[in-house]
Specification:
- β3 and β4 form a beta hairpin.
- The two termini are 36 Å apart.
- The strands form five sheets. Strands 1, 2, 6, 7, 8, 9, 10 and 12 form an eight-stranded antiparallel β-sheet that branches. Strands 13, 14, 16, 17, 18, 19, 20 and 22 form an eight-stranded antiparallel β-sheet that branches. The protein has a two-stranded antiparallel ribbon with strand order 3-4.
- 40% of the residues are buried.
- 1% of the residues lie in helices and 42% in strands.
- It folds into two domains: 165 residues, Galactose-binding domain-like (Jelly Rolls); 157 residues, Jelly Rolls (Sandwich), CATH 2.60.120.260.
- The chain is mainly beta.
- The longest helix is centred in the middle third of the chain and has 4 residues.
Length: 328
């Protein structure tokens, strides 16, 4: 797997990503492009228009041109790589694809975005695709973008589109008088590493909203030796964490027995980070937690931080972590 796939999927429907328009979706709807689930195959399943396919699929083109779909990113940001997944499209995938990008304020309509006023720039040049494959492409871009246009040549089907990169929110949310969730994925928070994520991915901790089921949080395997599990969050901005919310929603027989939080300050979020070489300060001392419960902790002596480490004892699952404070 390419390294960029460990970044945030900016187009994720969990963050509010949506396919706003497509010139054609005769065989399969455009909305399926951003489904959170992996593509599936249904043997013998047909609709009144043809074989049921889990993705976006256009009709066979009999005229010049190509097909396209416009995506609103759930979180604006800088794109580092894309995955054009053609799973189960074997004789009906596009030969080639390209992606254009733009950045626009507000919430423009699908009609406006489909018109001639939008200034699109290339993100991924026209590139060969393979069928039934997760086609991965690293891109070199430094521009913050809000919308993408996926072009397929000349027609066909794409199961999923993933757009990995760095979240770049509006700077207006970071003021010294406004409390902000400095860990939130949509604000630019990122879980840089963890001791283990056997059952649930570390980035689930900072997703928007409450968890939907036990697999929608961060969960480690059962620890059989000494020590404890942990995860480290890089804050969206250097700031003071003043209160913390920790949710063990859905973890009923596998919540941690207790938790402890520490912080460190490396001065710059772009600086080199080595968890073993920084000075960690206790933010919340070891405290018992309950299964399937939303916990609240006030920070008695807030300090400036760039990273926060959540320690869980000895192991288990946490659904969500919120780190509220003010950027400095």
């Amino acid at each position: 797997m390419a390294s960029f796939t460990d970044l945030i999927d900016l187009a994720s429907e969990r963050l509010g990503g949506a396919v706003l328009a497509a010139n054609d979706e005769f065989f399969a709807p455009k909305e399926a492009l951003l489904k959170q689930s992996a593509p599936e195959w249904r043997e013998g399943a047909y609709t009144e228009r043809g074989k049921w396919m889990d993705g976006w699929e256009t009709r066979r083109r009999r005229s010049a041109g190509h097909d396209w779909a416009i995506v609103r990113l759930g979180a604006p940001g800088i794109v580092r790589g894309v995955v054009i997944d053609t799973s189960y499209f074997t004789g009906n995938y596009p030969e080639r694809a390209s992606i254009d990008m733009t950045s626009v304020d507000g919430a423009p309509s699908a009609e406006w975005l489909s018109g001639s006023e939008v200034q699109w720039e290339p993100l991924l040049i026209e590139t060969q695709l393979e069928g039934n494959t997760t086609n991965e492409f690293e891109v070199d871009s430094r521009r913050r973008v809000t919308h993408l246009r996926l072009n397929i040549f000349p027609d066909g089907g794409v199961a999923r589109l993933r757009v990995y990169g760095d979240v770049i929110p509006s700077e207006s949310i970071f003021t010294d008088i406004r409390e902000t969730d400095l860990a939130a994925m949509t604000n630019g928070g990122y879980v840089v590493e963890c001791s283990d994520m056997h059952y649930g991915h570390r980035q689930n901790l900072i997703l928007p909203g409450r968890s939907t089921h036990m697999g929608d949080g961060w969960e480690t395997k059962r620890r059989r030796g000494p020590g404890n599990d942990w995860t480290i969050v890089r804050l969206a901005r250097r700031g003071r964490v003043e209160r913390i919310e920790l949710d063990t929603d859905h973890f009923k027989g596998n919540a941690p027995g207790s938790v402890m939080l520490e912080s460190c300050d490396i001065g710059s979020l772009s600086g080199k980070f080595d968890a073993g070489k920084v000075e960690w300060r206790k933010v919340v001392g070891e405290s018992p937690v309950q299964p399937h419960t939303w916990h609240h902790f006030d920070v008695t002596n807030p300090v400036v931080a760039t990273h926060v480490r959540l320690n869980i004892y000895p192991d288990g699952g946490v659904a969500r972590l919120r780190l509220f404070g003010r950027a400095v």
